[in-house]
Amino acid sequence: MHKDSFSNMLLGVDYYPEQWDYSLLNEDLDNIKELGCNVIRIGEFSWHLLEPKEGKYDFSFFDEVIFNAKKRDLKIIMGTPTATIPAWLAKKHVSILSEYDKGHKISFGGRHVYCFNSHILYEYSEKIIRKLVDHYKDEKSIIAWQVDNEIGHEGSDECFCDNCQKQFRLFLKNKFNSNIEKLNYVYGTAFWSQQYNDFDEIPMPLKTITTHNPSLRLDWERFRSESIEKYIAFQAKLIKEICPNAIVMHDFSGGGLTKHVDFSKVARHIDVVAYNNYPVWGGQKEPIKPYEIAFNLDYMRGLKGKLFWISEAIMGAQGHDITGFLPRPNQAKMWSYQAFAHGCNGLMFFRYRGAIKGAEQFCYGIIDADNCKGRKFDEVKSFFEDIRKYGKDLNQDIDNKVAILYDYDSLASFRIQRQSKLLNVEEEMKSYYKVFYEQNIGVDVISIDKDISKYKIVIMPHLIITKDEIEKKINAFVKSGGTLIMTYRCAVKDKDNNLVFQKTLPINYSDLTGINVVEVESLQEKEIVPIKGKGKYSKIMGTCGVFRELIKTIDAQVLFKYEDVFYSSFAAVTMKKHDKGIVYYIGSSLQEDILDKLLKDIIKDCKIKTIKSPKGVEIVKRGTKTMYINHNQEEKEVENILLAPFECKIL
């Protein structure tokens, strides 16, 4: 198996043949081939089938599946089965199970029930992966290996067991070079008499009266992320050891910015990022907004800065215990076009056939329990037939000129101390993204450790933790001619999640921004404080909310100021011009139309090309082609092109 073993666009389905009678296999594979598939994704939840008893391995079932798939020229993405440990393992080694509350083990029966810091997990994972990969290492039809499944999803990113307590203390001991007094100083443990004499006295942040130390909690967040990252790295390294030319991928879940794991760091250890794209899920009245779907896709592409795969694209209604919204005719098909527009270059639909038993009976597939080909089958077939025509263009890299930055530590800091009950950093990021999306301007959503030198506009929303390497990167970007947009709650804390003595806000950015933040307050409404424009914005009045910083200018220009009686002398939005670059500072969550106006002016000043389109119509250029995507349930016309409800045309 070689990295160049596939050159055509991957189009396929997620197939779980072990859940069906073997007599259906050939009929299923014929149907999958009829759909226009060239790949199936299998094996990710099959540990017991592969090892029914400890040390007794049996790969015969998947040997048959692969043999019959090959006869139809279907390639394979094979999963390591570690997301669902077998019952015999949980029974023999109870310590492998994770704990949400100290002393209360998670019950065997779901998925991801294991502790990432269990040496038993590593021991048994290595055994099954070694046997599995060694068995298939020469199988040329396997074009990629998927490690585990949706890492850190559904609460599996937290555990408070003895394994985690021991490893957390070791994590801190290594960080502070066994110097407990250094930890006491950094954490400020003199507060509430929290001083420690030894690392063995340090607690995990379990439930306590009031709250735990914010520095300890941030280190716990880093520890959680590192624990999960190490497990994926371990699997990827093991596969490469046995099969050096293997392509290793992982199927990331949604909600990555809210997890106790840094997806961007996990992505360093794999070759291909894959994403399970669910614009609607069980219990949702309607799908999330088109710009939110696009944001999630751009975030996935940004994990490695490369094209990615969709490992699960929905076609039917979804839900475990509560069924969700049924995508309207051609709507799920349209979402798949949108995925390709944002950098997907391989896609698998979830799932070939919906389950009739187990927890996902209401996760409907291309074919339902009646086993009849219907509308959804025809939609997938027509989508594959059309999209494969554009393989060359859709395999081109994406070169955007706008980036939105995020930082795992800052996101974690807001989980620890939200500061305003209305402040949701991901939603704030999306409010900026939406303006660019509606102008049909591509945006990269990237971790702060990525190179930003190529961008014209960089948005830095709520990066509350300041670090030397970030400061250097941001200053260099502005000095080289970039336009920077900073928001409130940037550069408020040091790398240990503490406020900084004798430093004005934003810490170490006063020269760059030309401002100081004098005082702050949390606002418990989204549009509550009046603001008024100055200069070219003098005719604009509106509101802001969520949180605000009272800004005193040093040498920045005031664009908007607060208009309430006590604080009308303070700026709300400022701009400072440098020799080449420009820095905007936004001190509160602005009323939507004011933010829209401000960002559109910045776009115009930066000479970034916009494309006009009706509301709900997305236009994306990929290679030599232009994709026109109608997210509306009614017909729309754009550039003399008529689009049916939920239609995509590529011209």
Describe this structure in words.
The chain is α/β, with parallel strands linked by helices. It is 31% helix and 21% strand. It has 18 helices and 26 strands. Strands 11, 12, 13, 14, 15, 16, 17, 18, 19, 20 and 21 form an 11-stranded mixed β-sheet that branches. An 8-stranded parallel β-barrel has the order 1-2-3-6-7-8-9-10, surrounded by 4 helices. Strand 7 (248-252), helix 9 (263-266) and strand 8 form a beta-alpha-beta unit. Helix 5 (119-136) packs parallel to helix 8 (214-242) and helix 10 packs across helix 15. It starts with 9 loop residues before the first strand and ends with a strand. The relative contact order is 0.09. Residues 1-6 have low confidence and may be disordered.
Amount of helix: 25-40%
Sheet with the most strands, sense and barrel status: 11 strands, mixed
Rg measurement, Å: 26 Å
Note the beta-strand portion.
15-25%
- The first-to-last residue Cα distance is 36 Å
Morphology: globular
Task: Outline the low-pLDDT stretches.
Answer: 1-6
Number of contiguous helices: 18
